[in-house]
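Slides due. Your pick:
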Amino acid sequence: MSQSHLFPITHFKTGFTTCASVSHPSLTSVPLTDDALGVHKAFSLPHELVAPPSSPDPSYPEAGTTPDGAPAPGTAWQARYPKGSINPRSDREGGSVFYIAGPPDFAKALEESREALISYRVLLDAEWEWVRGGKMPGMYGGEGDLAYHCSGGRQSERCRCFNLRLMWRAHGHGELYAYLPPSDTNKNRLSAVPPRSIVNPDYGVSAGRGAFIWPKARWVTLAERVRLNDVGQANGEVQVWVDGQSVINVNGLILRENADSRIKGIHFSTFFGGHEPEWASPKDLRAWFSDFSGAVIE
């Protein structure tokens, strides 16, 4: 495999990608469509398949490429954030929420996996404003349908699911926004992630706030690795890369308390919020998402 920020780990059993410029003997190439990627439980505003705008950045001499040298995506899912939108369940809808299982063979392998990787590229509107923060896609899992219960401040059955989305905060500060089984072990491990972490009593833990800065007007590649813990042991791991650089890496976690809790795929979740009006999008904004990829490592 040529160098790709989509796959910061090159040794894996099986995987998929919608990026035409990446190849590997264990990878299946699939189109960026709902059917091919196993999209389900979609609600809120639609994710339209469009040609994204070009975004040359003076920091990168090759206009029309990504920082790892790949061609800029020619197609992408567009998310829209109308002025005043806060989250998909508010009166003023914005963003998009759904789940990605991956192609059938990958989804089947994922159900039996101990460790997996997901990645994607995102381009934020050049006029983007951060306000207080918002959500970005990440991995999720759990026991059966309970895997869908770990977000939005839910408190019931929290020991039977996990959700590891990313977030932007004020000034573009990035973080891992983690819902894990509530335990002192997880609280202590996540709160120690530099440069700053905040344990929210009712919502997810903001881990590593400021570990990276979200860029605007150019493609950025996010990759996330999750390793499940052995049941009864605190040896789970979560790692995040931004443009090929490891920015968050935390171990000693408890992601599950039961062997039936498994990695499920990608929680595509993007919106401004929060719930209060001060989180809302200040103007009509857009973001584009492409090159979705995944790999079963073990």
Q: What stands out?
A: DSSP finds three helices and 16 strands in the chain.
